[in-house]
Amino acid sequence: MVLSKIASQSDVSVHSTFASRYVRESFPRYKMPENSIPKEAAFQIINDELMLDGKPRLNLASFVTTWMEPECDKLIMDSINKNYVDMDEYPVTTELQILLLALDAFSKNLKVHAYDALLFFSSSLTIEVRKLKFDFSAKGPPSPMNRCVNIIAHLFNAPLGESEAAVGVGTVGSSEAIMLAGLAFKRKWQNKRKAEGKPHDKPNIVTGANVQVCWEKFARYFEVELKEVKLSEDYYVMDPVKAVEMVDENTICVAAILGSTLNGEFEDVKLLNDLLVEKNKITGWDTPIHVDAASGGFIAPFLWPELEWDFRLPLVKSINVSGHKYGLVYAGVGWVIWRSKEDLPEELIFHINYLGTDQPTFTLNFSKGSSQIIAQYYQLIRLGYEGYRNVMENCHENAMMLKEGLEKTGRFKIVSKDIGVPVVAFSLKNKSWGHDEFEIAETLRRFGWIVPAYTMPADAKHITVLRVVIREDFSRTLAERLVHDITRVLHELDSLPAKLSSAKISVKQEENGKINGTVEGKNGTTVVIKKTATETQREITIYWKNFVTAKKSSRNKIC
């Protein structure tokens, strides 16, 4: 007797995913489905949606690394299932920094690739490393990432003796690093105020209005007043003079930015330090400085080593840097370094032993993957000082080439600086053109480019800019292509009607009846200037109020 199955009853594993029912059924997005589906179908469904994402290397809005060498990609995948906090279970990963001195010499003397050196050590020394006992007492930092922390501390000119270990910790990024640094400043300030018998319930921190949102999060989450120095047109970083004027006895620190998110500019940390030293002498305070070097920390030491912004300045007590930005590692790693162990209050460090050994911890989260830490090790020993300098020089030169190309169009004003993060920020010169920076950004997406447009913070909100972040994988060829495509966009917009010109309504202010929010565009068309959401809502309300009033008047009018 012949047995047979109809197609709908057959084993789904023999079918192509696209021949199965799973591609013609809609799956719940916000609830767990009742039944399982084949792994091939699950992969295809997710992969199909991910195809709609932009290409990471063409995302010029992000500072985060989007390319690493294949050898490092393999190391990342090989360690993706290791939890970094399990020191006793993963001793090679945990103590990799102890091996790096020998590893560095090993890879240089035998002239082998850093990837091969890492594999050699991790496979042959596992048993030996398990036998070692490591001291995390006051002599060492509160972090198991001793070697990497020391490399970065020396890069930032920390005042360390020959055998003295640096104080620092690895984090999931600069946001966590800033939270930890801020907590250290707050606790140290509170301890001092308590010892002096003074109020300690109203701490504040002084920053520029250009700080990244993580500073606002720190202030709100940990109940610290954020005192912001407002920006002004053509000056888009914190003014050190104004910052020091805002400092009072409750200021736990002044935060300076080495590489503003808005335009890549370095703030003048040296001037800030000098002014604050003088104020501290006069007032008797000891207000310190934290440097947010998330973007610039891996740039300044290689391009401008003579620039004083780091621990060479006496009031700089801590520095954070993002390994996943110009540290050249994929997203998920940052670092915070303290000047000395006295700048990190001991009571903030916890000790646990339920993972198999006593270990100190000073982080906001606990578990995290090992792969990004290993990737940072790889880059440090693979590239060395020479390699990092070459990468940063390439980024800077490509940024200058892009800047020159944009200037040649005659249409843009450059608002970024030559000394700073390799960022090119620019705005339109002609504000009555009829099109704006947001339209340029939107049109560039049709060519695959993701270029953000945004307004500046308080007191400079009328300025809109476009920003291109030059990363390691942004080549001269791509820079030339971007200039070409921006030029095409400008010509295309030239041929189109002015933005919102079809709207014939000119909104009037109720108070004085004057026309507000419009300018004359090409061919006499009315161009509406972009307003805030509050202003727009107010004007819509006024317009409809006037419209309804006019209707009522005409309806009651006697002919």
From TrEMBL:
EC number: 4.1.1.15
InterPro entries, per the entry: Glutamate_decarboxylase (IPR010107), PyrdxlP-dep_de-COase (IPR002129), PyrdxlP-dep_Trfase (IPR015424), PyrdxlP-dep_Trfase_major (IPR015421)
Catalytic reaction equation(s): L-glutamate + H(+) = 4-aminobutanoate + CO2
Cofactor(s) the protein needs: pyridoxal 5'-phosphate
Any Pfam family hit: Pyridoxal_deC
Top-rank EC class of the record's enzyme: lyase
Alphabetical GO biological process terms: L-glutamate catabolic process
Domain of life of the native organism: Eukaryota
An example Gene Ontology CC term for this record: cytosol
Alphabetic keyword roster: Calmodulin-binding, Decarboxylase, Lyase, Pyridoxal phosphate
Record's keyword annotation contains Lyase: yes
Modified residues (N6-(pyridoxal phosphate)lysine): 325
Gene Ontology MF, one: calmodulin binding
Similarity comment: family membership: Belongs to the group II decarboxylase family.
Protein name: Glutamate decarboxylase
Origin species: Salix koriyanagi
